[in-house]
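Task: fold both queries, return tokens.
Query 1:
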Amino acid sequence: MFIPIPENISPILKEIGTISYSKGHRAYLVGGPARDLILKRKLKDIDIMVEGNAIGVAEEYARHHNMRVKVHPEFLTAKVKGRKFIIDFASARKETYPTPGSLPIVEPGNFEVDMRRRDFTINAMAISIAPDNFGELIDIVGGLNDLNKGILRVMHEKSFQDDPTRILRGIRFSARFGFTFEDKTLEYLKRDIDYLKVVSRERILRELEFISKEGIEGIRVLKKHHIHAVLNLCTVEDKILNKIIEFSKKTGINPEKSLLGSLLICTDDFPLSSHMHKNLNLIKRLGTFNIIKVARIDEDYLPLLYAYIENSEEVVKFFTVRERISPEISGGEMIKLGVSPGPEIGKILEEIMVLRWQGRINTKEDEIKYIKGRLNAR
């Protein structure tokens, strides 16, 4: 069976396949990109597996196009950032896991070993990019059949023990494609779910970020399989999720950071960025609407604020007028009017913001008038 290769990537794949072939290697489009090509979905990146020296192939391809190549010899991989795609090159390899949840020990392998080390059958298909059979699908694990049936099936019964993050990847694919776990795979998931506890919180957080990008369905599938209980995540009610999406649709704000925040706002178990930590702390301490505090919350987290705060319609109003409530006068101008340098400047700016929010100040001239009146009233 041959898979049609879109015109925008065909020249790239043909060139890589030819370079590999000239070195005595065969190369394949593999993993998620192969799956998505079969599903006729648009590719974001390109994953290449070479039966041989993938780093050498990547370096030659990069040299032809005057591109930079980033090499990871310990993993037998290289990355080339092209004009339209990021291209990941990997030699066919074998992986062994010293302990559950640890990073694998990587050794050279062959095509079959490489396919059978992968997470799910739908991600263990390969499309040849060699000149003599360009576009041919190589499926040794029944991935195409599972793809057609909408099934997520692991490669072996200890797959989730080797790498528990595969459970979270399965959640992501289930949310994205509407696929269900094959019966045995679901048994393994339930049996091995506690292995997620041994994975570093950094890796778990990264997977949760990916799940949040799948939208509301990602969080729902996570809850459906009780992952939140194992990872000490918030039990997010559907009404919260629905309000996040409702506000996102009203405003056009991407909901993914708010969806991720909804999982993390009740826990301190994860190494959040200072940016996210600040926003979640502001939201959970707010309770009711306060324009000064709300103005400190970044736009990406307004859907979450809308979902959690009591008088949520105020958040909609804030979104529509937020650019008009910022004071126009500068600190230097205030000093020239007679305001003392220091904390008083910040206090007056907050007062002006409240008055703008209330509609009692609308222009810079109004601000100057207010400040003069305040100074005269001393």
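Query 1 returned. Query 2:
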Amino acid sequence: MSVNRYFNHTSFASEQGLVQDLIDESIQIYGHDVYYIPRDTVNLDTFLGEDPLTAFTTTYPIEMYLKTLESFQGQSEFISKFGLHIEDQATFIVSQRRFTSAVVDAVDSAVTVLSRPREADLIYIEMTPNNRYLFEIKFVEDKERLFQLGKLYTYELRCELMNFTNEKVNTNVDDIDEVAQKEAYTINITMNAGGSGTFVVGESVYQGNTSLATATASAEVYEWTPSTRVLAVQRVVGTFAGSTAVKGNTSGAQWTSVTTAAATAPTIHDPISDNAFLQGNPLSVVKSRGTHMLED
């Protein structure tokens, strides 16, 4: 015996198109407008397979359905032997046809090769004006609906709230860049009085030698507060020393750092700076989690 050849369940194009239309419309009705942000490789380590200087510069608006409805998934915040980990997770559904139209066909193939959503790319979503998030794609399930009528219609994107290190997010979309800057790894450098000039947000600053190219330490300005002489910097390369001039590459500003070491500024989702905070406050943090075994 074999299946009835008079009934076609796998390759009837008009029915496949109908299902795809219904899925696209459902996502557009119940979904969210998001931005898909591909990862740009800057200096890939082919041995370790990672790029510590990754950049995100291009955005593609598209609608996605947030499958995670009631709360973030994952283990949320937890303390392990490696420090504080934050694993807020969410799952997005995107139409394969819409992704091809809005992203794949729009990408400059000479710069980026993209045929489907990729692990390590980002998704930006605004829940409310005060609740905006950047998620990193951890896994892409391309068989989320198992060949209904002989075709696949959606991608399921399993994501985790991004933990920032030295990635550069400069998309020219103010809301996205603001979220990235607030949560990126940041250090504060306090300056001695008597310096000159004003550091400009976004410019490169450096220490050592006579130019940025040969500097012993460099970073990007996040904030300069003249009243307190505190310079907040991100994307730090090298170590900023005390009693040494810090120079602005574009502004020409020059101030001398104090002798004390630069302090780490804890951020919301940055495990590196959070761990530095935990190391200095272990008992109070453990107590606040409801454990009293270390009180005595």
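Both queries returned. Flag for query 2: The helical segments are 13-30, 96-104, 174-183, 271-280, 282-288.
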